[in-house]
Hints:
It is a peripheral membrane protein. By secondary structure, the protein is an alpha/beta fold. It has helices at residues 49-56, 78-83, 100-110, 115-128, 144-156, 174-191, 202-208, 226-233, 245-256, 277-290, 305-313, 317-322, 333-346; strands at residues 7-18, 21-33, 38-42, 64-69, 72-73, 85-88, 162-166, 194-199, 211-216, 219-224, 236-241, 264-266, 269-274, 297-301.
Amino acid sequence: MANEPIIEADGLTKRFTVKKKTVEAVTDLTFQVERGALVAFLGPNGAGKSTSLRMLTTLIPPTSGAARVVGFDILRDPADVRARIGYVGQLTSGSFAQRTRDELLSQGAFYGLSRTASVRRADELIESLDLAPFATRSVQQLSGGQKRRLDIALGLMHAPPLLFLDEPSTGLDPQSRANLWQHILDLRATYGTTVFLTTHYLEEADRYAERVMVMDKGRVIADDTAAQLKANLAGDLLTFGFADETDAAAAVAVIQRLTDREVRREGASVILTAPDGDALLPAAVRTLDAAGLSVRTATGVPPTLDDVFLALTGRTLREAGEGEPAEDEETDAAASVEEKTTTGANR
Ligand SMILES: Nc1ncnc2c1ncn2[C@@H]1O[C@H](COP(=O)(O)OP(=O)(O)OP(=O)(O)O)[C@@H](O)[C@H]1O
């Protein structure tokens, strides 16, 4: 059991019916997550990230497919799954009138913790998530970043081995985002919690996640470490500058002999992307020099995950998100009601 993946999804698919039209939000989602991992689900608006999370957390049933989460089947044993996971959705605790610490104690009671256990856990989380200065303040008075930290504390009151976070840092300023991430990393180091989160912030997925699953139009289109994704799918952008277009045209032929990537000229510059840019850049400069072509400038820019997304889909993440329709209405009323109830109680 200990070596069993903490998440095993097998062909999860979710379709919604909106105004008699079918929207396939998630198609054939199949993956596993090992215990202790930090996985980011990255994709533009409408890619299907939240829907995937909502299925894995038993908030909505899949149209087809299956999944085991913390050893339990999401359809057959939803209560067992819920008892062992923390879920922090996109809604924040912002409107609660209770004080921060009392909010945590209520959550403890909701999970069936004894008063003593609740107090101990609440104080522990207040400490780890840096909430002590606001513990007796009403939740409404907290800043966006403080509320988000409280949300995470609420999701961790019952010490779940697995925490799902849906866009934890959206809407926060860069400093609060960095601070929140530090807390997520610290929690993981302290409690060994497996963290599975969604984000559309490329830099966050790149910097903090050990594994990045890229989602687009309901499908996972890449799944690896950020470094591997960038090396395999994008590559460094190399640019060489010359005195004039004639030199640049001659340089294209020289550089092309060093790589099987496409080398192209733009004005007096030569441009290419290559996975081994660090080695290719000086080698190309030496070869060009030996060929009597004087290089005026040479730059290498490492790729971003946006370059990966572009290489995979032909669109940048920003463009992909902009194409999304506005809010759709769900016609699956039962699923909708179920989610509201659970999220309301679970916060
Ligand atoms: N309850 C629903 N009823 C109808 N359609 C829905 C519902 N929830 C999601 N969808 C549709 O399913 C698709 C995937 O949505 P989802 O919210 O999972 O994407 P996302 O990647 O989480 O986006 P975001 O980053 O904006 O949260 C979208 O086309 C969305 O409009």
